[in-house]
Amino acid sequence: MIREKKAMRPAVIAALVFLGVILIVMVFADKIGIHDPTSIDLTMKFHGSSREYPFGTDDYGRCVFCRCIYAVHNSVEIAFTIEIVSVFIGMMLGMCAAYFGGIADQLFGAVSNALMAFPKVILIMLIAAFLGASTRNIILAMLLVDWIWYARISRSLTLSLKERKYVQAARLNGASAPVILRRHIAPGILPQLAGQFTLSLGNVILGLAGFSFLGIGIQRPTPELGLMISDGCSLIRTNFSVLLWPGIILFLIVLDLNVLGEWVSEHLRKQA
Amino acid sequence: MKRYLIKQLLLILPTLLIVTIISFAMIRLMPADAVDVYLVTHHLEKNEKNIAVAKERFGLDEPVPVQYLHWLKDIIHLDFGKTYSTNQAVAPMLGKALVKTLQLAAASAIWIVVVTPVLGIGAAAKPEGAMDRLTRIYCLCGTAIPTFVLGFILIRLFSVNWKLLPAIPDGSAVSLILPSFTLSLSHIAYFVQMLRNEMLENRGEMFVLYARARGLHEKRIFWSHLLKNSVQPLVNTMGISIGGLIAGTVIVENVFSWPGLGRLITKAILSRDYPVIQGYILIVAVTYICANTISDLMSAIVDPRIRLGKGDVS
Amino acid sequence: MKQLLRIDNYDLSLRMNGENIRVISSADLFVSEGEIVGLIGESGCGKSMLWKSLLGLADPQKWICSGELRLMGNPMDLSDRAALTEARGNQVSVILQDPMNAFDQLFTIERHFIETARAHVQWSKGEILKKATSLMRRLYIREPEKVLKMYPFQCSGGMLQRIMIALALMLDPPLLIADEPTTSVDVTVQREIVAMLKEVNRDRNTGILYISHDLKIIEDLADRVYVMYAGYLVESFPVSALQERKVFHPYTVKLLQSRPSYTKAYLPVLEGNPPSLLDRQAGCPFAPRCPKAVDACRSYDMHVYEIGNQHIVRCLRWEDENEPAQN
User: Fold this and answer.
1) What's the pLDDT score for residue B313?
2) What is the mean pLDDT of residues B197-207?
3) Among residues C198, C222, C246, which one ends one of the domains?
4) For the segment A87-120, what is each residue's pLDDT rounded down to a tens digit?
5) Do both C151 and C291 map to the same domain?
6) Could you report the per-residue pLDDT of B5-15, keeping only the tens digit for each?
7) C27: which strand partners?
8) Quick one: angle between helices A64-100 and A102-116, nearest 10?
9) Which residues of B fall within a CB distance of 8 Å from C107?
């Protein structure tokens, strides 16, 4: 175990550095991506890699690099929103189920078991099919599935936290349930969700790209990594780099978040 | 064992019933009205007469429970209705696609069953050895690489650059290699990790100490006690992951233009072809239930505690 | 009398973060033929690690041992794992606590017998099972043929413990090591197990090293006793010394005092806990809890005082009057 920790370290440092790069892209997307990612200029078709177009241009003469930058910006933003909302919903429902128990808890158990009994991808696809393919609907569909994990973790943590002395003391002092949940239980749960949050962030970005690739996620012409790969797949014989670059970037982001997620989870386990 | 089997099989029935009800309800609750879609796709004018015809065609003029029973009767007779878009019968279409998808899933399962033990045991045999480190890097990358990216990279390398394997299905078994490998890679990574960790964890268990204390040789302990105990939880997870494989086929089939269920459902979703979607839900649900039952049975074969009715297995 | 197991000046250290932490220090111990030797100590004092490391069951990556080991009178190389593997189960058999977890739940009892025998001798399956049934019958297990076909989880804890003894006796080992075999079973089974071990010792002249934290069982069972504290064998004596209250180490005295008894209205408690591995200091490890401790104790090199009649003690002040042991 001791050696494992040492082996992890360089990977974690690299992951943290890459996370910094992602954050810079998030903040300065419009400064880094100098070309309009959606403007079509057929005269600029299939430019090779150059200073102005680091990854070259695609079949519509759009700068692949800039499209990637904006795509990452969009994906991360959407994934982050989905995750934040999921954490919020999941925590609320999980805490309430555990705190109030009884029928609320049983109902929660039934719903979460039913949702978890089916493969996640197919579930999201079916919800998207039900609602119709659009950016808004895929976000909704992912939200509907994503909160369960947070809810389950929150539920089990609340079950143990509510027996703690300080929570009991607060209850004896006449604090109301919302106050106890917000002031005494939520702060205990939130850090524990960090590991799951990081891992899920990667999964949501991956899922989003996958659904967009299939055409049931984010819609054209918004730049999106999955969409770029889908658009580029006819160029596999001639201009492979057009789909390779977004693929590599997607892989790196997911890898980065996986490494960090494992690291955070391990940290939390050690603390416990 | 016989009793266990019968019990498991009987448990399938209520689950199936629930699935049919959900599947039926989904169509009924659909925001886009089936009649509207029908009229639009058949370029019919939206008037009283056409609506009545459409309603009659879908049996919408009857009370809901009766509709459900009619529908259920059709389903039992494998009649899934006709597609909105092309007016073909859904059942044979789904059947053909299902065969293709099962081929793909079976080929992936072979990859998983063959490669997982080799890497997992190899890594666990010498923790922190070269094999273990390489396997760990593979596990990290394997779970992070998007299936469609992997698929295109493999096509580019094996079909375009080296011209070794066909990328497009031509009906031969060789054309199964790339798609099935693409589909199985992340699953293998997951299982290898699980097997390795199980084996390393079980090393510290009492039964290993006791086996050593009785003078058993390390090799024997590794290959019989350690392996059997570590594989046991894997068997169950593998069975369940058949569902995950079916989900994975959606993307892989689109990458490799594989004419299976995944491609069919993607098209159906985009054209809102509800009878196809409904049929797909049923098929996936049945596959899923079957997979779970099979994995339970496999666990029972490996683990006498389940077989002989000691339920308290973690 | 032939000495089945003998260690001299045995040290065991744990490698942790580049440091070596001493777990057992200069232990001398022997078990003779036909003798039951008790080893008593609180949990964490190193008594289990002692036999595990001796028999080559400690991970050599983590544990370092040194000293002299003799099995059946023959000197053994502590790093010769093949020889130690051969000796285990054949010359020295082990009975563990918690048999529910010690047996492999996925293997039948029969398989356990077969694999143990096959590891050492070339018997046929029929011979092995015949021997197993007769041993099990001798240990009062009803319908042994049926039990052999069962899985461990189908047996009770007490039954498994008896099966474990049968398994240990399979190859007629001269020495048996029992590591707290009675901790996980209820009191009636405890008595049965102790009686069974006595019977085995009497009938087969098997030497037994019985490890426990329960003074009562040791007093009842053993011929000779070793007391272990924080990695040191602080005192050893024939069991008669216990009965005559002629023990000298303050720790042994305290152990004796805190032994439950129906005649006691008040049970003195041994205050404090043994030092953890990381904060063991120089001198006598018991000094912080010892009522007789003086400054010299903290620089005492733990050398041995031999006080006759196989009685050995590691205490500077053993000659000084102890608090009277009540009974």
Assistant:
1) 37
2) 93
3) C222
4) 999 999 999 999 988 888 888 888 887 777 677 8
5) no
6) 787 778 778 77
7) C10
8) 150
9) 224-225, 228
Please say which residue of C197, C222, C247 terminates a domain.
Answer: C222
Q: Nearest Cα to A205, choosing from A217, A194, A195?
A: A217
Q: Which of C59, C105, C165 to mutate to test the interface with B (most CBs of B within 10 A)?
A: C105
Instruction: Collect all residues of chain B within an 8 Å Cβ-Cβ radius of residue A261.
Output: none
pLDDT number for residue B235? 86
Tokens describing residue C115: 């694999």
Looking at residue B309, its pLDDT comes to 67
Q: Which amino acid is at C263?
A: T
Parallel, antiparallel or unpaired: strands C175-179 and C207-212: parallel
Q: ∠ CA(A118), CA(A121), CA(A122), 5° rounding?
A: 60
**What long-range pairs does B99-103 form, CB within 8 A, spacing at least 24?**
B100/B169, B100/B258, B100/B259, B100/B260, B100/B261, B101/B246, B101/B249, B101/B253, B101/B258, B101/B260, B101/B261, B101/B262, B103/B176, B103/B260
Range of C282's domain? 226-327
3-class SS of residue C15: strand
Q: Which residue has tokens 């492999």? A: C104
- Domain B91-308, what fold? MetI-like fold (1.10.3720)
The answer to whether the CB atoms of B149 and A122 lie below 8 A apart is no
Per CATH, the architecture of A55-271 is what? Answer: Orthogonal Bundle (1.10)
End-to-end CA distance of chain A: 17
| Domain harbouring C217, CATH code | 3.40.50.300
Cβ-count burial B26-39 (b if 16+ within 10 Å, e if not): bbeebeeebbebbb
Provide, as residue numbers in chain B, all residues whose Cβ is less than 8 Å from the Cβ of A248. 149
Hey, are the CB atoms on C105 and B305 less than 8 Å from each other?
yes
Residue numbers of chain A with a pLDDT score lower than 50 = 1-7
ipTM for this model = 0.90
Domain boundaries, chain B: 31-79, 91-308
State the first-to-last Cα distance of chain C, in angstroms, to the nearest integer.
Answer: 35
- State the total domains in chain C: 2
The predicted structure's pLDDT at residue B32: 57
Contact between A96 and A104 under an 8 Å Cβ cutoff? The reply is yes
Task: Report residue B303 CA to chain centroid gap.
Answer: 24
Domain identity same for C238 and C295: yes
* Strand partners of residue C207: C175
pLDDT of the residue at B219? 92
C241 and C209 belong to one structural domain: no
| C229 neighbors C42 (Cβ within 8 angstroms) | yes
pTM of the model: 0.86
Element (H, E) at A206: helix A194-214
Q: What is the mean pLDDT of each run of 10 residues along chain C (327 residues)?
A: 91 88 91 94 87 91 91 91 91 91 93 94 94 93 93 90 93 93 83 90 93 89 93 92 87 83 70 75 85 86 86 87 53
Task: For an interface test with A, give the residue of B40, B197, B269, B293 to mutate (most A CBs within 10 A).
Answer: B269
Token readout for A184 is 């005494």
Q: How do residues C139-164 score in pLDDT, each as one tens digit? A: 889 999 999 999 999 998 889 999 99
Query: Tell me, what's the pLDDT at A1?
Result: 37
Chain B CB within 8 Å of residue A144 CB: no
% pLDDT > 90, chain B: 43
On whether the CB atoms of residues A154 and A193 are closer than 8 A, the answer is yes
d(CA B135, CA B138): 5
